Amino acid sequence: MFIEKFPGFKLEKKRVLKKWIRSCIEGKGKKCGDITFVFDSDAEIREINKKYLQHDWFTDVIAFDYNEGNTVNGDILISVERVRENAGIYKVEENEEIRRVMIHGVLHLLGHEDDTEKKKNAMHEEENACLRRWTKEVRDGKI
What we know:
- By secondary structure, this protein is α/β, with parallel strands linked by helices.
- It has helices spanning 14-26, 42-53, 80-90, 94-109, 117-139, and strands at 2-4, 31-40, 61-65, 71-79.
């Protein structure tokens, strides 16, 4: 489920993250299938962005949807460098920004889009709801 390709990057709380992601997906009435998160560099993510999406720019997350019926499957590629930079810009801990970007990718797999301002705002609200679920479930010992 988690591939850490970026040198020196180590994802924390993998077991808990996996349960949280499953909880968010199941909370939307879907089944969690095979989802792989790949943590890589700006350069690698940009190359994939150019090759598969014809976008020649840096991005923090790319999601490839392989859903089958009600089962959520996909690959989510995350730029560790973008996450670190964004954490500084938004003045949040790196782990919090990692969770936000991870769930952003999952929301794309769930069919959410962010290609308009209205859709971006709605997606941001969904991210926040999932992050609140993280806080509550960790606090309550559910995950």
